[in-house]
Amino acid sequence: MQTFSIHILGCGAALPTPRRLSSSQIVNIREKLFMLDCAEGTQMALRRSHIPFSHLQAIFLTHLHGDHTFGLIGMLSTFGLLGRTQDLHIYGPQDLQRIFQPQIDYFCADSPYKILLHEIDTKIPQTIYEDRSVIISTLPLAHRVPCCGFLFREKPTPRHIRRDMIDFYHIPISQINNIKAGIDWTLADGTLVPNERLTTPSDPVRSYAYCTDTTYRPQLVDLIRGITCLYHEATFTHEHALLAQKTFHSTAAQAAQIALDAQVHRLILGHFSSRYQTEDVLLQEAQHVFPNTILAEDGLKISL
To answer: How many domains does the chain have?
Structure first.
């Protein structure tokens, strides 16, 4: 199968700690890299992870709080110093232009590449990026400022042609892509060989949703139903449910309930409050509702 992986650069909440940076991730789909949020320290985490800066296609910001954006302007400046020439597209909520364009004009005035800012409506689900490999759409969230998550859906790959069928029917190379696309094969005597005999099914389509920061939001369920993997904030335990509600965050149990109701395959908890000395209590709370739950860790790489 082709690459579809998540590389977690930081998974802490507002306060970075010696153990955890604040929010940032890289999603790798068929060797195209997409960044989710860009907290303070993100470019150093990229270096430690040996992720090539030059492969980054676009950056998606869930919202404009500092623990999700403070690393952005420094990283953009570094890209210029490294000689990047490929355009870089940045997607984020309203006020993206107002906050970052002056910084870009000042700190990246001589940059050898273009930085293109795209403001998105966080209130409605919509497709904001599409190429041959992936469709990326927004997931409306509920936070103290305009905020949305992002859903990555891989596009289907062609069927796999059987090598023994190529040899048996003497299929020319020029027709292989047509058969992978689902076309039947006709022999010289007019006999039709169905595509199902010549090929095996394509790889299962994979999907990933990134949801942080948000209060408990059941409306997410229909938007992410059946996806391969969900990253959902779990800032607090149920013990601090009132604080979660007040600050527009979620508990681990609430994140797990979303995963259960949406019938996702796997749940990753993240955006942990620094008040917890260990996140095991969050994991146990979530696994009680949705067993196939793991904790995010800085530097963790997950292949789907």
So the answer is: 2
Residues 64, 114: one domain? yes
Residues whose CB falls within 8 Å of the CB of residue 274, separated by 6 or more in sequence, listed in order: 12, 13, 14, 15, 17, 20
With vertex at residue 53, the alpha carbon angle to CA 137 and CA 206, rounded to the nearest 5 degrees, is: 35
Verdict on whether the full-model pTM lies above 0.85? yes
> Mapping DSSP to helix (H, G, I), strand (E, B) and coil, where does residue 304 land?
coil
Q: Which of 67, 87, 121, 189 is catalytic?
A: 67
Looking at the structure, tell me whether residues 90 and 177 fall in a common domain: no
- To the nearest whole number, what is the mean pLDDT of the chain? 94
Pairing of strands 88-92, 115-119: parallel
Sign of the CA dihedral with 278 first, then 279, 281, and 287 last: negative
Could you give the CA distance from residue 25 to residue 8 in angstroms, rounded to a whole number?
5
Q: 113 pLDDT exceeds 90?
A: yes
Q: Decide if 67 is catalytic.
A: yes
